Every structure is written in structure tokens, then in C-alpha cells.
Amino acid sequence: MRKTDISRYNLNSKDRRKLCGERSLLAKGLITAGIILLINVAIFMLIFVGYVISVVNDRVEYDVRANKLQLTSIIYVMDENGKMKEYNKAYSAENRIWVDFNEMPQHMKDAIIAIEDKRFYAHHGVDWIRTMGAVCNLALGTGSYGGSTLTQQAIKNLTGDNDVSITRKIKEIFRAINFEKEYSKDEILELYLNIVNFGNGCRGVQVAANTYFDKDIKNCSLAECAAIAGITQNPTKYNPLIYPENNQERRETVLSEMLDQGRISQDEFDHAMEESRNLVFSQSHKAESVAANVPIRNWYVEALFKDIVEDLMAKYKISRASAQDILFKQGLKIYCAVDEKAQSAAESVISTESLMPKDKNLELGYMMMDYDGRVMASVGSRSKKTGNMLFDRANSAKRQAGSCIKPISVYAPAIDIGLYNYGSVVKDEPLPNFYGRGKPGPNNWYKSYKGRVPLVWAIQQSANAPAAQVLQELTYQKSFDFLTQKLGFAHLDPEDRTSGGALALGGFHGGVTVREMTAAFQIFGNGGMYNRPYTYFYVLDRNGKVLLDNRDNIGRRAISSQTATIMNRLLRQVIVAGTGRGADIENWEVVGKTGTTNDDKDSWFVGLTPEAVAGIWTGYDSPKRIRETAYAKRIWREIMVRFLAGKAAKTYIFDPNVRTCRYRLNSGEFAATDDGTSTAIGYFATNSMPKGYVESSNLTSGGGFGAENSYNGAEPGAVPNAEVIIPGHEPIPDDVFE
């Protein structure tokens, strides 16, 4: 027997200690890794369990029974006495016709169950065998998950949630279980067959039967029902008008499943297969008569419906189609925010040919709001409205804002953070790389640069270079954030974040709507608060439950009350001696801003009175030069005059911490008296008075503001109506500009 020399394998004590130490470190490392893994698993399980608990009672807010009843929703408005009266009704133009469960042929019900959910009447909303397979597919990343029951598919159609994820699947499962607690199997099947997409814009089996076979679903044969049922898995691939071969293969699969499951006899199967080989489809227009009977809605009601649908989708996490069903078919009571006088004034002016541009292709969008966000009037076109769901230039059209943007993107935020005040002097000179690639700018409309100018004059005359200079000091980022985070501009492009041409001059890549611009300017008439625009006060369902509510909306502060007061006074000078001349209204103090874009392709006016704020855009749908850019201002004024007729005049309410004092136009410094140089009365926050201002001099410097002066019984906090005499249409004194 061979002996093995093991001496070479012997370790000395030092080596053994080293080896043991290494093993100990490895063991500790494995134990630590195991503990970390267990902790992570525990955390994951806690999060997962918490998520499951959070969705266990998740439900879909959709009243199937109300939808089935096809109840008309009623719109109410407030009359001149503050009482609600019926104003309009909600009619649907959707290509969807609800058909009662008892009017559907049994073959249609059996066909959809056979191909989509053969255990439909056995489970309680979830087929657990198929669901486990779907979860495994998701975990393995196969991309195909399947496993949805008819109940789950109905919910997915109601919510529009098509996210392929385990969390969505979990939420869908609990929604399905809860849904089956509220509705019977027949009600769920009826819902499914009335809302599912059957291609070519067909929602529901009735419209599908009308479209593909020119008949009602109750008169469809077994083969025709199988053809309709086969579409749902892929409405494009199995569309019989586009891919008839695919539909034939699919419908014959449906028939085979029906036979295998004992839902039809062999004779019925053979007859249906013979019919399938010769099935003829016809493009019918029968369903289109539904839309033809829907009354034409005015622009305001169109905007109202759009807002309700969007808000239902957001609040209840449902699809657009489901939100439209709730609006048009579930007997809502809608308390509309329209001001009938304001809407009538807008419609009457815009429909009067003598007041409108001769070029009928020159379009407009108009909106009026009050100072808590209520949309009082809305018009989406200057043309007579001849249909529903037309392009709305007040709520949907995204345009370049031109100089209208300057007060809200540049001057208000700059004054609010203390960079400038009413009397500041700003540079009127080009920036060296304004347009990029070393190209200086921007140019002014008056084709020159004046060196240094009063800020109030720059706003009056809508000068471009001063706005760009102020923007650069403010920073592009702060301007962009102010517009998007404080003022609700939702359509700006990421490129606008770094574009001086966009932020200082209104030449946006993304664009703004009339609704956004009007809402933004409200901050200059209500003390600096931004309120989200709304077209309804509240909405009730058929049982009186509040579905949507704007009555207790809380606005957000965009600028301080002092800044709002100062900006109001600055924008007053646009009307007094600037580009807004001609917009004033007798007995009413108008403030506002004009705006035109490069080559005069867009023309704006956004103006305020103490009663309301309104904005108007004029231009062409395909942008080109406007010959007469003053129409926006003139139309705005005519509408406002008619709206204000008969109303008692009001004054703005301003911050009592804003004071008036005299300052020098060429330096912005305090002027104790009018000493012959060019001076003006300005409006200043108490913490941003002109350089050299002395408190005791306040009463002799053009008037104090606040405790020292009541201004002859003026409303508390009201700034006196002193007109600031600034060079504008008059010759500019030499000592004002450097």
C-alpha cells in the first residue's frame, strides 16, 4: 500500500490562524450580506403589503345603471338675481349607442365569453389561474401578460389605464373584485359589450353592427357576432374593413371555441362556418345620424364640457371615453360659471360685421375672467359656429405671446424680488449674444437704442432691449419657473427655458393660450393671487353627490400684494401714454398690455378693469402678417364697454404699504419737489423707496400713501389716480435719457 506524504500539507500555527481569520471574515461577510438581503426583502414586503392595503378598497367611479338609463345632464346658470336657472343640456356627439342586455342576441354574449373569458360566470372578477400566469410573464419580462377577465377588461376601458406593470395589475385585480360586489354578471357583460373598442371608432356592439353589417345587433347572425367578438383582441389587426383575411381567421377561431365549450351545436357551427367564408361587410353611416341631431353648442359650453371631462379623468382616474359617458349619459346637474351678460356682449360684438376686420380669414380667441378664476365668457372664433367640437382659439390654440409676455415673464418677478422698482432706470442697449452665435439683440420697434431709460417708459412703449436686459439680471431660469410654477403655463417647450427671445419677447417654441394669458394677468388686479381658471362652480351626480367642486378653490400667491399694486400702476401708463392708448373706458380705469410678434403675425391685448380681466388674440390660423394690428385692442374695448354698461363704477383695491412719491426720471432717485427737471409720481413698496427718500419728506413729495394720507376719502388702500407724466407720444426731453 502506497503511503502518502502529508507533511507538505501540514500548516504551522501562524498559517492556520491566517486561514481561520480569512474564513471568519468570509463568514461574517456572508452573514452581513444575508442580513442586508433579509432587511431589503422585509422592506420590500412591507412596501408591497402597504401598497396592497392602500388599493384593496380601490374602486372605479362609474355608475353603470345611470349610464344605461341614458339620462340627460342639465346645465344651470346664475341669473341676475343670484338664482340658478336652466341654461342648456348636455347632448353627446359620440359614436356610441347603448343597447340593453336583453336586446343583445345570446350568440353575441356567448361569442365574447368564449374567446375572452370562458369562466366569466364562475369567478368573482379575477381568474386566478390566468392571473398567476400573467404575473409570471410580467416578472420574466416576456412582454405579454394576458390573463384579464371581462370584468378587468371593462375596468381597463373605463380607466384608460394601459400601463404594463405588476402594480397596475394589482390595482386592477382589487378594482375588479370590488366592481363585482356592486354589479351583477349580466350588468358587467352588458357594460363590456357597450364600451369596448370594435375598430373604426366603434364603441360597443350596436355601433359595430351598424357599421359593419348595416343592421342592429339584435338582428346579427352567429357568424356576424363572431366577427364582431373577434375584433376586441386587436381592433386594428382584426378590423374587417382593412384586414378581412385576419378577421376571418379570428372569427373562425371564435366559432371553434364556442363549439368546444358547448355553446353552439355542430350544425350551428357548420352553418356559421359556411357563412363566414362568404361574409360581406358594408361601411354604414347609420350611426352618424346620432351626431346630426345634437344641437350646436356655444363656445363657452364647449369649453365647459372639455373642463368637466378633463377634471373627471384627473380626479377619478378614468378614461376620456368614460368621463364623456358620465357627462352625457348620467344625468348630471352642472352649475355653470358663465356670466350671461359677458358672453352675450362678446358674441354680439364678434358677430357684428362692421366691428370686425374685413378679412374674414383673420381669426380671434377671446376670454373674460373675474379675479377668483371664474371664466365669465369664452369665444373660440370670429366665424359663426356651425358645429360642435370645433377648434377653439381661446382654450386650445397655442400662439406666440409677443410683448404681452413682458409684464409677467420679466417685470413682475424682477420687481417682486427687489431687483427694480417703479422709478428704476434700465439699459436700452443690445445684449452681445442675445440670439446666439455672437448675434446681438434684440432690436426695438423704434429702430434705435436710447442708452438708459425709465422702466415705466420701457413698459409703456413695449421696448424690447430693456426687457432683455432686465431678464438677464433676473435670470432665464427664474423667469421660466415663474411662468410655469406660479402662473400655470403648461405648453412651454424646454427650449423656452434658455431662450431670451421666448421669455423677454414672447417668441415661444411651445406657445401660450388666451386662457393662460388671461389667467396670468389676473394677478395685477387681485393683489397678486393666481387662481386656476374654472368654467363651473360644481357638478352633482343624479343622486345629488358632489362630483366636482370649484367653490372653495384656494389660489396661490404669485407675487406680493405690493408688487401687484405697483405693476397695476405701471400697466396703467400703457393705456395713458403708451401702446395701449385708445383702450380706456369712461368712468372705468383700464390697465393692460398690447403684444405683437415678429412680422406682425400675432396681435394681443390683455386688459383689466376693476370688474374683470379679459384677453384677446387675433391672427391667422396659418401665421402671416396682419395688416391691422389694432383690432385686438378695439374689439376688447367694445366688448368690455357693453359688459360694463349699467354697472356701478368700481376702483381697484391696493396694498396700503405702497406709497407715492416724486422721483427723477433720468436717475430714479427721490425728488423732494418738482424743480424743473423731468420728474414723475411713482408707486413704491415701503421697503423699496427711491434712493434719497426721507420719511419726513413724504407729504411734500407728491403725496403719501397709507396712514399719513386718506386721499379725500378714497377707498382704504387705494392709490390716488395721479397720472404719471412720462414721455411717450410727446417729445422726449433730453435730460431723461443718457
Kindly list the characteristics that best describe this protein.
738 residues; single chain; 16 strands; five-stranded mixed beta sheet; globular
Write the layout of secondary structure elements.
Elements: H1 13-55, H2 64-69, E1 73-78, E2 84-90, H3 106-116, H4 128-140, H5 150-159, H6 166-182, H7 185-195, H8 205-213, H9 222-229, H10 244-260, H11 266-277, H12 288-292, H13 299-316, H14 320-329, E3 333-336, H15 340-350, E4 363-369, E5 375-379, H16 406-416, E6 425-428, E7 451-454, H17 455-460, H18 464-474, H19 476-486, H20 500-503, H21 514-521, E8 529-530, E9 536-540, E10 546-549, E11 556-557, H22 561-577, E12 591-596, E13 602-608, E14 613-619, H23 631-644, E15 658-664, E16 679-685
Parallel strand pairs: 1-3
Antiparallel strand pairs: 1-2, 3-9, 4-5, 4-14, 6-7, 8-11, 9-10, 12-13, 13-14, 15-16
